[in-house]
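Supplementary notes (optional reading)

For those who missed the lab, this is the record we used. Protein: BTB domain-containing protein. Length: 311 residues.
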Amino acid sequence: MEGGVQLLNRDGHSISHNSKRHYHDAFVCMNRMRQRGLLCDIVLHVGTKEIKAHKVVLASCSPYFHAMFTNEMSESRQTHVTLHDIDPQALEQLVQYAYTAEIVVGEGNVQTLLPAASLLQLNGVRDACCKFLLSQLDPSNCLGIRGFADTHSCSDLLKSAHKYVLQHFVEVSKTEEFMLLPLKQVLDLISSDSLNVPSEEEVYRAVLSWVKHDVDSRRQHVPRLMKCVRLPLLSRDFLMSNVDTELLVRHHSECKDLLIEALKYHLMPEQRGVLSNSRTRPRRCEGASTVLFAVGKALSRPRLDRPGSRV
């Protein structure tokens, strides 16, 4: 090539450049611009707080904002939008997350952050909140977490929390959360075949504790509750010394019938096939185990409540 330098050979080879830091650096720059108010085209109003941002960033990571800014909604042409039913601090954290992909979930913000993330359809943050709550499950709070998960349609967390409640029922039944449960939820728990209890006495005691927590309004529910307690699985001694002497039980004729049924189950073993029903079925205690010895070998199997077992 005359008068110049030949930079390319005849083969015309090329190279591909891929910067791993490009997206990161660009979003760091955009976040700095947001913080300085540069090129911001939207101001989010929530409560008394104003949050400046860029529509394209919000729309790129949140289906909620994508619909708001790209469809024929009035907000798509506005520079100021007021949001309702969302916590101001949570919204600010989520806008920050849209730029940085980082957020801290903890005890102080999870209850406002999860519903806010659900509203904005930020599923990654929502999942992080559920993961945090799952790690915090304890007998003292599992019912509250279960209710929170149900309210916000977190199905996996709901299932895990419910399983935790069943597995730790003895401890859970002694908590304030249990005492405040509505009747339906108590009935659902004590009706479960998967309730993990060392003996049916724990279920009976839990029911009486719940009733006596607000005895004036709850005494009417004793018959419905006792139908879910598996009285035939209680020992005959316990039935006579505890159940038969309890005034809350003796007050209701339906409960007397249940007590007679349980005593017949003990006194007439040849009739157990006829007397069998949901109350005579042992609970399947998932996660619990016992050791049986047969022909010199130890065999492990799921633990089952036995009629007449004692604490």
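If you only remember one thing from this example: The CA atoms of residues 193 and 283 lie 5 Å apart.
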